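Notes from the 1:1 (GR / supervisor)

We went over the backlog. Supervisor wanted to see one worked example end to end before approving the batch request, so GR pasted a single chain during the call. The sequence is below; no edits were made to it. Supervisor asked that the structure be written out right there so they could see what the output format looks like.
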Amino acid sequence: MPRVRVAVAMLLIPLVVLLAFASSRPHLAAQKPRSLSAGAYASDITPRKFPVSVNGHMTDRQVSEVHDPLRARCLVLDDGKTTVAFVIVDSCMIPRDLCDRAKELIQKKTGIPARNVLIAATHTHSAVTLTGAFQSEPVEWYREFVVEQIVHGVERAWQQREPAQVAWGVGEDATQVFNRRWFMKPGTIQPNPFGQVDQVRMNPGYQHPGLIKPAGPTDPQIGFLSVQARDGRPIAFLANYALHYVGGVPGLSADYFGAFAERIQQLLGAEKVHPPFVGIMSNGASGDINNINYAGPAPGKRAPYEQCRLVADSVARKVFAAYQQVAQHHRADVSLAVAEQEIELGVRLPSEADLARAQQILAQARGPVLTTLPEIYARETVLLARYPPTVRLKLQAIRVGSMGIGAIPCEVFCEIGLEIKAKSPLKPTCIIELANGYNGYLPTPQQHEWGGYETWRARSSYLEVRASDKITATLLELLREVSQERPSSEQ
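Structure output shown during the call:
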């Protein structure tokens, strides 16, 4: 062999070996930096037929008036390797079967893996019933309509993807959140629907003489993810705040969640951008948090929707101030990661004696509309008796750069969210509740012992007493899993 050929061959051998080594080590071979793209779309889920059932109350409300539109606000992020979709829906709660069906269709139409889609309810109490609770039951035509609109919204957001950049951070507004569960003086709490006396009462009334102290903390943080086109044009703004809802709206309404979307759009100067900007407020760990300060005097009477606007303006201004601190730090070279796990939890089923008592109470009820708490919870007892002894629920963790998002299908008590945030390896971490299904309230074991509305056994509260411990441990494992996938540039 001529010397030139020998030399070339000798040079090629190390190159071939290097390429073979790199191909066997994907993290070495993939040297090309990731480049983010994003798209957003707000799909209209306002009903076309009236009247409609509205849940979130002890009795059903039939509503024909629309105060403001209901939306499924969709955001798609794609780093070139992983695609995720967020869908925040103006609904009180969304059942697992509806979420799963929407995700399957999204995967078929866009290729986004079903496990990479997060679908959550805002928990507005002025939206159409999608999940049976107390005396409100869903109708099939609206369930189908919402699935169609969720899929349509994600498909449009996916089609509108463009080169994007993101920034994230945390604002604070402690003025709008209060723990609604209070320790009360002995003798000031009436027996609960099951004839027992609790240590804690929900919504006791302004300056009630029996007030001792709140039974839990609040979380003033407003986590946010800002999404822009490369030229700085706002695409979407996803926020997260632990506030149950505000209320004070007679007709259908997205509550303060919708008002926040409008207000943050104004503050960002995004009213006339194209494609249209999408503001999104998701609900944090707010199972025991509302907007009412029972330690203070009752405020003056508000006009319908006025309190929603006041809360939205306050929260939007606080988070916008935090956004301004990171506005110059949007970046396109971020990666995404998703982890998901199903866990099985026990159900607090009624005993035979519980069921017999409930049937007796219902037999003595006077009308089709139940008016007393014992009657209402007797009906819930009969319905809950049909549940299986265990249920499977889905937990999900998503990472955007160094920001973590944990999704739980429950109305999560605030202290649980605070614990997960504190222990999460990702900073900041946000908790999106009522995500990927509905499994009722999630109190801690201690809160179960104290009692109160959120612990009363019903379709709205049925998981085993230690469910929060198991959910917290699993979600922290998922957050650690997605954290470990961060490139060194995002550590």
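Supervisor's comment: Residues 37-182+209-344+387-490 form one domain.
Batch request approved.
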